[in-house]
Specification:
The complex is a heterotrimer. By secondary structure, chain B is an alpha+beta fold. Chain B has eight helices and seven strands, in the order E-E-H-E-E-E-E-E-H-H-H-H-H-H-H. Chain C has 18 helices and 20 strands. Chain C has a five-stranded parallel beta sheet. In chain C, strands 12-16-15-13-14 form a five-stranded antiparallel beta sheet. The two termini of chain C are about 40 Å apart. The chains are: A mainly alpha, B alpha+beta, C alpha+beta. Chains B and C meet through helix 1, helix 2 and helix 3 of B and helix 3, helix 5, helix 6, helix 12 and helix 13 of C.
Chain lengths: ~230, ~250, ~650
Amino acid sequence: MAQFLSSSIGKKFLMSLSGLFLLVFMLVHLTVNSMILFDSSGELFNRAAHFMASNPIIRIVEPVLAIGFILHILYAVILTIHSLYTRPVGYKKQKLGHSSTWSSRNMFILGLAILTFLVIHIANFFWKIKFTGHDLLADVTIHGVHMENSYALVTTFFIDWWWIVGVYVIGSIALGLHLYHSIWSAFQTLGWSNGIWRRRLNLVGLLASLVIAGGFALIPLWVKISTLL
Amino acid sequence: MDLTLKVWRQENSKAKGNFESYQIKNISPDSSFLEMIDALSEQLINEGKEPVAFDHDCREGICGMCSLFINGRAHGPDEEITTCQLHMRKFKDGDTIVIEPWRAAGFPVIKDLMVERDAFDKILQAGGFISVNTGSAQEANAIPIPQHKAEESMDGASCIGCGACVATCKNSSAMLFVASKVSQLALLPQGKPEAVRRAKAMVAKMDELGFGHCTNTGACEVECPKGVSLDHIARLNREFLAANLKF
Amino acid sequence: MSQLNSKVPSGPLAEKWEKYKANQNLVNPANKRKLDIIVVGTGLGGAAAAASMGELGFKVKNFCYSDSPRRAHSIAAQGGINAAKNYQNDGDSVYRLFYDTIKGGDYRAREANVYRLAEVSNDIIDQCVAQGVPFARDYGGYLDNRSFGGALVSRTFYARGQTGQQLLLGAYGVLNRQIAAGNVELYTRTEMMDLVVVDGRARGIVVRNMISGEISTHFAHAVVLATGGYGNVFFLSTMAMGSNGSAAWQVYKKGALFANPAFVQIHPTCIPVHGEAQSKLTLMSESLRNDGRIWVPKELEDAEKIRKGELQPTDLPAEKRDYYLERRYPAFGNLVPRDVASRAAKERCDAGFGIGTGHAVYLDFKDAIERLGKDLIEARYGNLFQMYEKIVDTDPYTTPMMIYPAIHYTMGGLWVDYELQTTIPGLFSIGEANFSDHGANRLGASALMQGLADGYFVLPFTINNYLADQIGVARMNPEETPEFIEAREKTLAYIDKLMKIQGDRSVDSIHKELGKIMWEHVGMGRTKEGLEKGIVKIQALREEFWKNLRIPGKTDTINPELEKANRLADFIDIGELMAMDALQRNESCGGHFREEYKTPEGEALRDDKNFKFVGAWEYMGEKKTPKLHKEALQFEFVEVKTRDYK
């Protein structure tokens, strides 16, 4: 197994598995967040957030998620550093645009952008909800259950600062470009692709990246714009 | 047509190389790219200079000996073609053409535009064959092979070992090359007995020789003169995974 | 050496090979380890032989001039490989394959060798399938066949238009296995410069490392040349740029006889020459003649208009076209043997009916596309059509292809006996490098068959017979053996001589001149006067070469000009011998066509009474006329007839 994991394909295998796992997380995350769009009272979102925070299965998955992130990032760094050594002398002229998409060539850059966004994002919400607390998070009671008012924290944040909305939109675009290449790519690395499935998976990748990136970008925009209407 | 060429010149594997500019005139658009370089060589010899060294042999697109990174693309600006089959009608009068050798850690430059590609031989020596001694084969029609499998196997087998996949890949990955052979043999019943050993040994050798990993950008497939498909890489991944699941 | 001994076993034709194998001497497995064999060349013959002998346990050293064995020019063979499997149930048999090959070769090949070739042809297909060669298959999963020139049965196995590539990669695969096992040591980018003979036996070679320029020597108990043909004498040919006759020429100068040098195959379906800068010709597979129809305009004025671009070939109605092969040879039609098809094209073009530059005829798929549909034609020939379009820039699906004959293969080569041994003991020659199986004309899809037959199934047996009495010969140290030291010094001096010419002409400029002389005087239609004139011109060119050549660069580094010069020096000599051989053969047979000897209809006129022999030339020294030896050809089992494809 150690031999497998140290091989180039084995490393990519880990990237794929962790990536697909993170994709599942994205979908869950988006589902929860989308509650903001459907209920301006915040009740729906707060209940969903509370469910996520209190469900024992989610609590178990949380550290696994962290490991997923760490593995994905760690191996991205290892592989990227390695590839710096595979071409000691570069080309003077190289037209890569003809043969591959920009996002497929810049997965690491996009990953860095997403990571940067992630740090901001965690500092904005997760950190406050989980550890430091915030005035806006003052308890609310919905159907007799006490929970944190995550909705207030999130929406206030977007309403107060335009540039934060901008950061979130940019983050979503980076995520979308990253996902656009990665869904088929992950299946390809796992060996689950052929002439027919490649087209299907690419379509799935396109749709998933549009939905996820679009969804994540829409939320802050919606929150901000709906206050202006 | 008249052209300006910017050509990589390098005395030997240890020397530091640099680009030289040459003017060349009266090239017929019906000439092949290598015939244009022949004309440059003739010109340089007449000027008392050393001609540009480059690899080439069959000049009909099948031996895989010719290489060259032309204006930023492996085998130049045409699809499914080797440099020797590229014709000058793909360029315009007055163009500047940048000609570079393959660049990859696995393909060291030995002179000018020539690189050493014995790494490919070594990968195949690690397991890119079926171990059958001369004389021990059974009757050829004893095992029918479904036509689509034979055809797909042939798709992989059409690799010419030129190295364009490595040269064009941002990670200098040799996956398409390795996949073409693993896939060809994996699709045939004759290749099954050694499948586990083959996939493991060839991937290990590929990694050892300094080729990068595959990030599925697909550039190799586009620049491959024989159009070898990425689907073979998926099959290699499958074979490699399966090989590592068997103990 | 006055009497050439072909060592053909006695007895009925079909039993000769079995009898030979039953009676030959063998080397026991323990002793094989102590015996070294050098194989020069890694094409179908070389790779197959090196791998097979490595499997047997011999210590093999394998040399090639390119960066990998897989580059050998066998890889460029497109159409297919013949075998007498009779999978199509159309009446094929070993005897029929043998007979077609003998007849196709215009009765100038040795019966016993050809029969053996046909016999082992079936083993080759088995072997290649086992190696994973992805031959074309039918819907049932069984092997498919196509037809080729000179045969009335479908016996050609193929892998799209890349059969040579697939067979070579199969052989390269088993060679790789032996390299990994340590039984074969591979030397790439290494060119043979000379043969080392010790006490009358081949004992090693001198080589030049093409990267470092280092000259070194290697010992072996036997040396095998699998170095291909010398067609590049003509400069323009379908051979690879590096294909050369130098190894064969070096051993000729050491005493090996060179047989039938005049027998050169001119392939009818090549892409025509585009101009002066042309460096090589590209073949369009003979398999295209299965479905393509060859024609020129019937009227001179139409041909003229097409040449001027005033008329498109597609505009010319069928009744104004001359399908000259179908007209002249109704039985075989477009599938007549290569020599016949080539001459017929030349005849039409010489008469003024040529299209394009005047040196081209049409190969038209219109009828086949109408009959079978574009999809099927694309499936059969797609890659060839694509190649044509890349080179010529017209679409062969809509506009007929233009083709013209070009130098493609050399039937002549080193004289070998039944064991594939040359007249130097211990020196063997296989594949295109020898002369043995194709007589005066090779049938399509037979070169691959011969290369692999020699490499897999003949040489590994026959070399045992020679090596059996060599087990007592200890390995020689080349550094200390006078013959090796001397050969190395000679090579160094020779290279020095080449480098010191310092004239003002490039190798290619002289080579192109040689090519023109050869094409004009020793090409498709030869005459006594023309050949004599050609010889004088070649001799003058030799003077020019040694006086006016310029090789830039140094000797201790990669120097392609030096490599080319070394080969060209030998090409000039080979060219002269070819002309001499063509001059002595006062008949027309196969690829050798003397204008003086033809029937009133223009067909080749053989002279079996006086020329039913193999002409083998012996080197007598520099500037001396070589001596012609004749191996009389006995046809015990076939009746010698006039070839008739009507």
